[in-house]
Specification:
The complex is a heterodimer of chains A (871) and B (98). Chain A is an alpha+beta fold and 871 residues long. Chain A has 28 helices and 24 strands. In chain A, a hairpin with a 5-residue loop joins β3 and β4. Chain A starts with a helix and ends with a helix. With 98 residues, chain B is α+β, with helices and mostly antiparallel strands. Chain B contains 4 helices and 3 strands. Chain B is elongated. Classes of the chains: A alpha+beta (871), B alpha+beta (98). Chains A and B meet through α1 and α3 of A and α2, α3 and β3 of B.
C-alpha cells in the first residue's frame, strides 16, 4: 500500500528530494570548477544544465499527490477562512439554510411515511380493502360476518380475507384489579387478521381457534404501547389474566412495536389490545360490523378481484333473495388509507420547496453583495494565472461549505420536528407514528445540500469570475456604472422572492379562511361548556326499566352538582362513530334496499337541551315516556324531508320492529364531519329502546373542567363505586380532533408563509441597502445639485415599490394557478377569494415599503460633501 | 527504462546516473538533468526502486537508488516491448529500397 505509506512520509520525501537536488547541483558545480570555471560561473552553468529547479522540485512532489484532492482541500481551507472573516453573514446564512433544509427534510419524512413508504406488512402491495357499497357513514362501508365467511369460501382471487370490528368504540372494557379501574379500548379482529398481514406477536403467540369461536375462551393480545405504558414492558404479563368487565381474559401475547394498529387503521385513537372476533351466526346478526381486508393472490389485480366478488355476490343474492348487505368495493389498501391526504401533503411539499427556493435566492443575493468587496482579490488571483474554472470551483466550494453546515443544522432540526410529529396523538392522519429521519431522509438532505449549494453559489461564482481584471485592479472606481449587471441580477432575484412569498401567502390565507369558515359552521349543537363522561356500569339489571332508571338517577345526581346547568345521556356523540339502520314509515311499502337509512341515537330526556340541539317542532322526551307507555321517537329535519317529503312528521309513525310515534323534530347535526351535512337522525329514548351499551354522559356546566372533575368523580362513585371516572373529554376537544388534519396542514403552511415573507422582506432590504451604498456618490452629487432629501427618499421608495409590485404581480398570477390546484382543500370559499388576494397584496406592499424605508432614510441623510470626498 | 537498466548494474545516486548515461551512450544522449528526478520519484512510488542515504566515495551525502525485483521484472518487460517495437519499425522501413 504505497499510497498509504506515502501519505505519512510525504514531508520526509519532499525533504529528501530537495536535498538530493541540491546535492546534484553541488556535484555538478564542483565538476565544472574542476574544468576551470569560477565558482559563480560553475554554479550558473550547473543550474542551466539542470533545468528549472523549482519546476523540477514541484513535478517531483506531484508524484506523491492527488491533484484533485489537494486542490479541493486547498479550496476548502480557503473557504473556511473567508467565511470566518465575515462571521455574522456566515451565521445568518447557515441558520437560513438550516431552517429551509430542516423543514424540507421533515416534510419529506411525513410524505414518505404517509404516502410513499410501503405499509409495515408482509407484501403490502397485495393487500386490499373490501368495503361495502353504501353511500355514507361507517355502516355503509362495513360488512356482515356472513359476507366474510362466504367470500373466503368461494373466492379464488384472495389468498385470505379477514377483518376487524369497526364499531369497537361502542364498547369499552374496564380493567379491574390493577389499581384504579381503567377504561381500555379493545378491537376485535378475526382469526386470520394478524397472520394475513404478516404481523407476529413479539411475545407469546397468535390467537388459536378455540379462542376465535362464539363464546370461545377469552384471550387478548396487548398492543406494544399499552404494554410499555401499563405493564412497564414486563414480559411476565404473558400468560396472566386480566379482569375486564366481568370476565377474565388471558393475555396470550404482546404485539410488536412496529405494528401500531391505531396509527394505521384508526388514527387519532388509542388502542390497548386486540381480541378475537368470531365469524359466526351470532355476530352476523349484528349486521354490518366488520371492516374487511384481503390479501390477493400473486398476479391478481384489483379489477379481477372486484369482478370475481361481483359474480360471487350475484350468486349469493340469487341463492337467498332476502339476504341484505351484499356488496363489495375492492381497492388497494394503501390508497384507501391515505389517498385522501395526498392533495394536502403535496401542497405542503410544494410549499416547503418554495420556502427553500426563496432561502436560496436570498442567499444568492447576499453572496452577490459580498462579492463586490472581493473584486480585487479575485482579480489578483485571476491575474497570476487562476483560470475561470478554478475560480468558479473555489467559489462553489464556499457555497458548498455553507450548505453543508446548513445541512447539519437542518438535519438536527428535522430530527426535532419528526420527534414531535411522532409523539402527537391529536392528528388523525394515518401512519404519522412512523415518521422518522432514516437513510432516505438523509439522502434527501444530502441532495438538498448539493442542490442549494449549486443554486445559490452559481450566480455569484459566474458573475465574479467573469469580471474584467483591469477594472478591478484599479483602485479608484467611481462606482457609477459598476455593478449594474449585479444589481439587475439581484433585482430579478428579489422579484422572484416576492412572487414566491405571494404564492405561499395566498395559499396559507385561503386555507386559513377555509379553516375559520369551517370552525364557524353551524354544527347543530353547541360544544362550548360541554364535557362528556363515558359511563358504563358493571351492575346487572333485570329489566330495561331498571337499567334506564339507574342512569336517569345518575343524571339527577349529577345535576345536583353546583355549577352544572343540565345533563343528558347519549350512546353516540357527534363526530364519533356511527351506526346505520333501516327504518320505514308505517303503511309505506319500500322496494328492496330502498328503505330509508337512518343514524340511530339512544338518548335520555334533557339530552337535546344539554347539547344545545334546537327543537323545531313538538317536544323532547320526558320521564313519562316509560317502557309501558307508547313508543315515541324524535327525528331531525333531514329525516323528516327524506321519510315524509312535503308533510309534517309530527304524529306520524315509523316502524322498526315496533311502531314509534314521532313526537318532535330537531335540527340537523353535523355528526360525521364538520364539512358534511348530516344524514337522517332518529333519537330513541333509553327507557324504551335497549340497544345500547356504553353511553356518554354530557354535562353542561359553567365550571371549568378542573373544578368539575372532582364533584363528578364523587357523584359517579356514589352511584357505582366501581365505575371508572377518568374517561372524559370536552366537546371542544372532540371538534378539535375532527379538524386536526386540516389544522396540522394549516399550521405548517402558515409557518412556511411567514418564513417566506420574512425572507422576502430581508431580500428587499438587502438589495435596496446595497443599491444605496453603491450609489452614494451619485446621490451626493444630485443633492449637491439641488435635490432635496425628500425627493431622494421618494425616488428610493418608488424604486422599492416598483420591485415589490413586479413581484406581487408575478406572484398573483402564480397564486391564481396554485389556488385552482388546491381547490379540493378549500371549504366555503372560492379559489379566487377576493379578500385573501387583496389582503396578501396589501400586506406584501406594506412589507416592501417598510423594507425600503430604512435605506431610503439613510439615502436622504447623505451629506453631499462627504459622499463626494469618498468617491 | 534506461535508468532501470543502469541501476541493474549497480546502485547509483542521481548525479551518477546522469554521468553514466552520458558515458555509456558515447555522449549520443543528452538528457536535461532535472527531468531525471521526477522520473526517479515515480519509480520510487511504483516500488520499482528503493532509496537510501549513503556516503559516496567523494565523502558526499547522497541518496542511492537500488533496483528491486519488481523493478527487474518491469525492466525485462520494457526491453522486450521496446525491441519488438524496434523490429516492427525496421520491417516497415525495409520495405523496398530507398
Amino acid at each position: 500500500m504505497n499510497w498509504l505509506r506515502s501519505l505519512f512520509h510525504r514531508r520526509q520525501l519532499y525533504r529528501d528530494l530537495a536535498e538530493e537536488i541540491q546535492e546534484h547541483l553541488d556535484e555538478a558545480q564542483e565538476a565544472l570548477m574542476q574544468k576551470g570555471m569560477s565558482p559563480r560561473e560553475a554554479r550558473e552553468a550547473a543550474r542551466k544544465q539542470f533545468g528549472n529547479v523549482a519546476s523540477v522540485a514541484e513535478s517531483g512532489r506531484e508524484t506523491w499527490q492527488w491533484p484533485a484532492l489537494e486542490t479541493f482541500l486547498m479550496d476548502f481551507r480557503y473557504a473556511l477562512r473567508q467565511l470566518r472573516k465575515d462571521l455574522s453573514f456566515t451565521i445568518v446564512a447557515i441558520l437560513i439554510l438550516g431552517l429551509g433544509i430542516g423543514a424540507t427534510t421533515a416534510v419529506f419524512s411525513v410524505v414518505n411515511a404517509v404516502l410513499i413508504r410501503p405499509l409495515p406488512f408482509r407484501d403490502p402491495q397485495r393487500l386490499a380493502r373490501v368495503a361495502n357499497t353504501g353511500d355514507s357513514g361507517l355502516s355503509s362501508v362495513t360488512s356482515r360476518s356472513s359476507n366474510l365467511a362466504d367470500w373466503k369460501r368461494m373466492s379464488s382471487s384472495f389468498e385470505d380475507l379477514a377483518g376487524y370490528f369497526a364499531f369497537y368504540d361502542y364498547q369499552r372494557f374496564t380493567l379491574y384489579g390493577k389499581g384504579e379501574p381503567e377504561r381500555l379500548v379493545g378491537v376485535g379482529v378475526t382469526e386470520s387478521f394478524l397472520p394475513m398481514l404478516g404481523v407476529q406477536p413479539t411475545l407469546g403467540r397468535q390467537f388459536v381457534h378455540e379462542e376465535c369461536v362464539w363464546k370461545g375462551r377469552p384471550a387478548i393480545l396487548l398492543t406494544h404501547g399499552f404494554w410499555e405504558r401499563r405493564f412497564a414492558s414486563d414480559p411476565s404479563i404473558v400468560g396472566q389474566s386480566l379482569t375486564l368487565d366481568n370476565t377474565n381474559y388471558s393475555v396470550v401475547g404482546v404485539l410488536p412495536a412496529n405494528f401500531d394498529f391505531a396509527s394505521v387503521f384508526v388514527p387519532g385513537s388509542r388502542v390497548d389490545f386486540l381480541l378475537p372476533f368470531p365469524v359466526s351466526r351470532e355476530t352476523d346478526r349484528q349486521g354490518n360490523t366488520l371492516a374487511i381486508f384481503g390479501r390477493m393472490k400473486p398476479g391478481v389485480t384489483v379489477a379481477k378481484a372486484q369482478a370475481e366478488l361481483d359474480v360471487i355476490n350475484d350468486q349469493l343474492q340469487k341463492a337467498d333473495p332476502n339476504r341484505w348487505g351484499l356488496g363489495a368495493a375492492v381497492s388497494e389498501l394503501r390508497g384507501q388509507l391515505t389517498g385522501r391526504y395526498r392533495d394536502a401533503l403535496t401542497l405542503l411539499a410544494l410549499a416547503v420547496g418554495l420556502v427553500l427556493l426563496i432561502a436560496c435566492t436570498n442567499l444568492s443575493s447576499l453572496l452577490l453583495s459580498r462579492a463586490a468587496s472581493r473584486n480585487k482579490e479575485i482579480a489578483i488571483r485571476s491575474a497570476i494565472g487562476a483560470g475561470r474554472l478554478r475560480l468558479v470551483r473555489q467559489l462553489l466550494t464556499e457555497a458548498f461549505v455553507l450548505a453543508t453546515a446548513g445541512g447539519v443544522i437542518g438535519v438536527l432540526l428535522a430530527l426535532l420536528l419528526t420527534r414531535s410529529i411522532r409523539a402527537t396523538q391529536a392528528v388523525t392522519i394515518p401512519l404519522l407514528h412512523s415518521v422518522r429521519i432514516d437513510g432516505e431522509a438523509l439522502l434527501v438532505a444530502l441532495i438538498l445540500v448539493l442542490g442549494c449549494a449549486l443554486l445559490f453559489g452559481i450566480a455569484p461564482a459566474l458573475q465574479l469570475s467573469g469580471s474584467k481584471d483591469s477594472d478591478a485592479l484599479r483602485d479608484s472606481s467611481r462606482g457609477l456604472s459598476e455593478g449594474q449587471g449585479r444589481v439587475r441580477t439581484r433585482s430579478a432575484l428579489v422579484i422572484a422572492e416576492v412572487a414566491l412569498a405571494c404564492v405561499l401567502l395566498v395559499s396559507a390565507g385561503l386555507l386559513l379562511r377555509s379553516f375559520y369558515t369551517l370552525l364557524n359552521v353551524d354544527l347543530g349543537f353547541q360544544p362550548a361548556q360541554r364535557v362528556s363522561w363515558r359511563v358504563e356500569t358493571n351492575r346487572r339489571f333485570e329489566t330495561l326499566t331498571e337499567r334506564a332508571r339507574f342512569y336517569l338517577r345518575l343524571i339527577e345526581r349529577v345535576k345536583e352538582i353546583p355549577g352544572v346547568v343540565t345533563a343528558g345521556l347519549t350512546d353516540t356523540l357527534p363526530l364519533g362513530r356511527n351506526r346505520e339502520w333501516s327504518i320505514g314509515a308505517k303503511g309505506v311499502v319500500y322496494r328492496d334496499g330502498e328503505a330509508p337509512d337512518i343514524y340511530p341515537r339512544m338518548v335520555s330526556p334533557g339530552y337535546l337541551e344539554t347539547m344545545g340541539i334546537r327543537l323545531r317542532k313538538g317536544r323532547d322526551f320526558s320521564t313519562n315516556d316509560t317502557a309501558d307507555s307508547r313508543r315515541v321517537i324524535l327525528i331531525n329535519q333531514a329525516a323528516e324531508r327524506a321519510i315524509f317529503p312535503g308533510q309534517d312528521a309530527l304524529g306520524k309513525i315509523l316502524v322498526n320492529r315496533e311502531e314509534w310515534v314521532v313526537v318532535g323534530v330537531v335540527d340537523n347535526v353535523r355528526h360525521s364531519s364538520l364539512e358534511e351535512n348530516g344524514g337522517s337522525e332518529v333519537y330513541f329514548p333509553i327507557m324504551q329502546m335497549g340497544d345500547w351499551g356504553a353511553t356518554d354522559l354530557v354535562v353542561r356546566s359553567t365550571l371549568p373542567l378542573s373544578a368539575l372533575n372532582g364533584p363528578m368523580r364523587i357523584a359517579l362513585h356514589e352511584m357505582d363505586s366501581k365505575m371508572p371516572v377518568d374517561d372524559f373529554q370536552t366537546l371542544g376537544a372532540v371538534v378539535d380532533r375532527a379538524v386536526s388534519p386540516r389544522r396540522f396542514v394549516l399550521y405548517l403552511l402558515g409557518a412556511f408563509a411567514i418564513t417566506a415573507v420574512i425572507l422576502a422582506s430581508l431580500g428587499i432590504y438587502g438589495l435596496i441597502s446595497y443599491s444605496v451604498s453603491r450609489r452614494a456618490t451619485e446621490i451626493g452629487i444630485r443633492m449637491a445639485l439641488g435635490a432635496s432629501p425628500q425627493l431622494v427618499r421618494k425616488q428610493i421608495l418608488r424604486h422599492t415599490l416598483t420591485l415589490g409590485l413586479a413581484g406581487i404581480l408575478l406572484g398573483t398570477i402564480g397564486a391564481i394557478i396554485v389556488s385552482r390546484l388546491m381547490a379540493s382543500l378549500l371549504f366555503g370559499i372560492s379559489s379566487t377569494d377576493f379578500a385573501t388576494f387583496a389582503g396578501t397584496i396589501v400586506l406584501l406592499f406594506l412589507v416592501a415599503a417598510t423594507a425600503g424605508f430604512l435605506p431610503a432614510m439613510r439615502a436622504s441623510r447623505i451629506e453631499p460633501r462627504v459622499a463626494l470626498q469618498e468617491g | 527504462m534506461m535508468v532501470l537498466r543502469l541501476l541493474h548494474r549497480r546502485p547509483l545516486h542521481g548525479y551518477a546516473i546522469v554521468q553514466e548515461i552520458h558515458a555509456v551512450s558515447d555522449e549520443l544522449l543528452q538528457v536535461e538533468e532535472g527531468s531525471l528526478y521526477p522520473a526517479l520519484q515515480r519509480l520510487l512510488k511504483d516500488g520499482l526502486v528503493t532509496a537510501h542515504w549513503d556516503v559516496s566515495t567523494t565523502n558526499r551525502r547522497v541518496r542511492v537508488y537500488t533496483l528491486t525485483p519488481a523493478g527487474l521484472g518491469h525492466l525485462h518487460k520494457e526491453i522486450r516491448r521496446f525491441e519488438s517495437m524496434l523490429e516492427g519499425i525496421r520491417l516497415v522501413l525495409a520495405v523496398g529500397t530507398l
